[in-house]
Design goal:
7 helices, three-stranded antiparallel sheet, five-stranded antiparallel sheet, 8 strands, 320 residues, disordered N terminus, single chain, alpha+beta, Cyclic Phosphodiesterase, Chain: A
């Protein structure tokens, strides 16, 4: 978080204190207050304003996200607002909850004025064509989890069908050489809380996880697959303040078709039981991971003793 700056008395206009009214000579007139001009770009080190950056390059992202106004979207937004108030801002608050397909695509302006942004149009056309080829299904919820690496975070685990991976590969293959930067993302989770600048305590993450389980409405999602869409956004202003959202402009979106009524063994189970199974799956995953760590730690001293004994025997033979 950026440190607060000292308030400059020259730029603060306030009423003089009552005790000084008796000495009018000490009270400056309004005309004596002078505000210096605000020089945003006076230093060469200052980042150019967004519209000037956009004239040189454009930054795009490609998200899978719940449709606006749906129960899952509204409850995710409510979770963000609640955690912001209760625990303070973190970097997950800088965007609305989503799963990244392409985390960033930077496209440089073309040399010819009439075709300077043709690559942006091609980027969207490639996505449009590939979405029509792939049989994309709504994501499946597989539980909440607290991660320790690469930074402590709270995530919502997601399972996607193979079409999404093929979609990302085709975008990278066709548009990678034409973008100055193109970053596909791991497509297995929605980040609910993280902060690489100041790591969130494990205790706070546990409380956030409880809040997520109470707040986020996954009933309709688990029952029907929910209502989702793929969206290309242009990043108009990238926020440098933790908790302040980036300014995104939607360029195009594609609805994800809901699940077909084909029979599955899992779909025959009651929704409440399927939700419990998702939580149990997440719990077993985390508990098995911690158990594995304990086994490794417990075995280390025994293995070390055996190695030391073998070394001492070898040394004894060499001495003889």
């Amino acid at each position: 978080m950026p440190t607060s700056e000292a308030i400059d008395a020259r730029s603060t206009i306030s009423a003089p204190a009552r005790e000084s009214l008796s000495r009018e000579e000490d009270v400056p007139s309004f005309a004596e207050f002078k505000l210096e001009a605000f020089k945003m770009n006076s230093s060469p080190g200052i980042i150019p304003s967004p519209h000037k950056l956009r004239e040189a390059r454009r930054s795009l992202v490609f998200y899978l996200e719940p449709d606006p106004g749906t129960p899952i979207q509204a409850s995710l937004q409510q979770f963000q607002e609640n955690t912001f108030i209760q625990f303070g801002p973190n970097q997950a608050h800088n965007t609305h909850p989503h799963l990244s397909i392409i985390g960033r695509a930077l496209i440089e302006r073309g040399a010819d004025f009439s075709t300077k942004w043709d690559v942006v149009d091609e980027f969207i056309s490639v996505i449009d064509a590939e979405i029509k080829k792939q049989h994309l299904k709504p994501p499946e919820f597989t539980g909440f989890e607290i991660l320790d690496k690469p930074t402590r975070s709270l995530v919502m685990n997601i399972r996607l069908n193979a079409g999404y991976e093929q979609l990302a590969k085709e975008i990278e293959r066709q548009m990678g050489p034409k973008c100055s930067v193109l970053e596909p993302s791991p497509m297995n989770r929605i980040h609910l809380a993280y902060d690489i600048l100041k790591s969130i305590s494990k205790q706070a993450l546990k409380r956030m996880k409880e809040k997520a389980e109470e707040t986020i409405d996954i009933y309709d999602w688990v029952k029907t697959g929910g209502s989702w869409r793929l969206t290309v956004y242009e990043v108009m202003v990238e926020s440098q303040v933790v908790g302040a959202q980036h300014q995104l402009a939607e360029l195009k979106s594609w609805p994800i078709q809901p699940n077909s009524p084909e029979f599955k063994l899992s779909s025959a189970l009651p929704v409440s039981l399927r939700i419990k199974l998702s939580f149990l799956s997440s719990w077993f995953k985390s508990s098995s991971s911690s158990s594995a760590k304990k086994v490794i730690v417990a075995q280390q001293p025994q293995n070390a003793v055996i190695l030391r004994n073998n070394k001492s025997k070898t040394a004894g033979h060499q001495t003889l």
